[in-house]
Amino acid sequence: MVREYVQDDLKDMIRIWNEVVEEGTAFPQEEYLDMESGAEFFSSQSYTGVAEEDGKVLGLYILHPNNIGRCGHICNASYAVASEARGRHIGEKLVTDCLKKGRELGFRVLQFNAVVESNIHARHLYERLGFIQLGTIPGGFRMKDGHYENICPYYHEL
After folding, report:
1. Is the N or the C terminus of the chain less surrounded, counting Cβ atoms within 10 Å?
2. DSSP 32
């Protein structure tokens, strides 16, 4: 089930988010969240959803404007799935819910600015769900080990 997060979810959400930050292969963030910064970060989004099964949070997403003013109708999102829950199509449920929520909030386009080219599982999912790749930005993402990989921006009309 995917639903809006509640305060009791924060500990698991922060653990999952920090796990992806630690891996250093998908999120641009390098700073870890703690309970205070995590509560502030997740509450500042237009929407934060969690995937849960039997009361346990297995993944999450954040949804927010990609820009301001005349481009404020374009949203952006990030997804995180706990390593022990990967391969169970939780990411697909999160992205599908995010597309629906973006429409509900009045956004017209969901844009991903920096999908790492080697993140083939995410890229295949996005393409299967109808996202369109805009091109490739050479060396746009610095991996945890310091080498640079291409990024692929994607969009989906809502």
Report:
1. N
2. P
Mean pLDDT computed over every residue of the chain? 97
Task: Show the beta-strand stretches assigned E in 14-73.
Answer: 47-53, 56-65
Q: Which residues contact 4 (CB under 8 A, 6 or more apart)?
A: 47, 48, 49, 50
Strands 109-116 and 132-133: unpaired
Q: What is the dihedral of CA 74, 92, 25, 72, to 10 degrees?
A: 10
pLDDT at site 34: 98
Q: What is the pTM of this model?
A: 0.95
38: domain range? 2-157
Q: What is the CATH number of the domain that holds 102?
A: 3.40.630.30
Question: Residue 88, CB half-sphere, CA atoms under 13 Å: how many?
Answer: 13
Q: pLDDT of 71-95, one tens digit each?
A: 999 999 999 999 999 999 999 999 9
